[in-house]
Specification:
78% of the residues lie in helices and 0% in strands. The protein is mainly α. It is elongated and about 45 Å long.
């Protein structure tokens, strides 16, 4: 159960980072450095989430559902 909560929290963090990048883009202050850092954080979180999913699957903590 803790792994599933961690996955959801990481997804929320990815969406929040994307929202921060959108805010910095739309604010029009020309602060592209903050937008760049937000996008780099999003990519890092996405890669970390992918690694967490693969590790949890390999350890049997989560199982895929068939369609």
């Amino acid at each position: 159960m803790a792994v599933k909560v961690l996955i959801v929290l990481m997804l929320v963090a990815v969406v929040a980072s994307l929202g921060m990048a959108l805010f910095h883009l739309a604010s029009g202050r020309g602060d592209s450095d903050k937008m760049f850092r937000s996008l780099v954080l999003r990519v890092g979180l996405s890669l970390g989430l992918f690694a967490l999913l693969m590790a949890a699957w390999a350890l049997g903590l989560i199982t895929p559902h068939g369609l």
